[in-house]
Amino acid sequence: MMRVGRLRKIFTTLLAVLVAGTVLALGIGISSALAAGIPSDSSSLDPVMQAQAPLLAASNAIDALVESAHLTGYSGAVIEPTNDALDLYWNGPVPSQVARLIQGLPVRLLAAPYSLAELDSEQRRLMSVYPAIEETGVLADFSGITVTADPAMSALPIVSTIKTSVNYVHKSYVPLAGRFYDTHPFWGGDAILSSTTYCSFGFEIAHNGDNTSGVTTANHCGEGVAWKTYYGGTSVGASVTCNPVTVCESVDAVPVTLGHALPNSDYQPYIYYGAWNATTGSPVIASANPVLNANVCTNGAYTGTSCSTNTVTAVNQYEIIDGVQAGPGFWITKTNHADLAGNGDSGGGIVTFGTNFSSATAYGEINLADTTTGTTCSGAPNIPNRACFYRIFSVNFNSILSTLGSYLCTPAKC
Fold first, then answer.
1. What is the model's pLDDT at position 138?
2. Is position 315 within any domain?
3. Domain range for 237
């Protein structure tokens, strides 16, 4: 058995984090607030991610305005392949608040026939009415819906009032249930072990009602299960039993908790970054929605942090996980076909980082892998029965928070 020494948590500077958080809260300096570079797999700045940072900041500001002002008509956002503009799709007249917000920013307005709310509602309806549907998504220009259905059911027409592209083919996906020797307070990105499987920690959250804190992992890893560190056997808590069970299944996420309300020293709003045996961490300062064509990092404990050539290739997707419709989420493809995630990485976070890992923003968790994209595994050695893939699915973390009735822990909040 491989033995790993005790990992020491190294704190990164909080000054830049607090400044960035203040700027975002005030709604000013959008282009500079997230203009920090995002590290590649070699821990250097990835120029693509660095170029996209102000575009992601603009998208996050638009999202926040749409939610806070209860605006209708928003369809979606796409980063231009040249990384010099954000395409904002809108259904109907653009509200004056949005026009003022994007004035002077690298944002291009485009018309869309449907709002995201309309598309999302129809996706959910189709999956509830037609059991043959295995997957739904939105077209890249938000002009309609994509549907993947069991080919054995091709004789039954799928009827929708929205433009729908139907592909009859059986999809083969697998949950990635599978650093290693953490101590209190526990961080996201940990390798965790139960009596039957191994998975990863995502992000620290706390319940809106009683402030009980915990760390997320994938629900398919198991509800009502006791978890411990991979080496050393230290208890990190137990995953809750959701009531009803479909609550956690609908976003494939579940909190692991030691059952204590804040303040406590059970967990901390940091995530490990780097290789599978990393000892350094980054503070989690915010959550955001994914943007098409954006580059993001995966942070499964067993593969480690992977950033370079990771592209968001589809958004507002729904998948069937353990027989239940889960989403909305997004697909990530590693375009050089190296491993993005493998068994054991389920529950690990999807993030972007600030310069020199000074901060992290949560976008989702690792939930599924496309089994047609198998590739050679890197990461932790001597882990049995691992298979790795270069295309994975993640449920939006903002949807996870709202569904679980929880809030994201940050250094300023927990």
1. 95
2. yes
3. 174-408
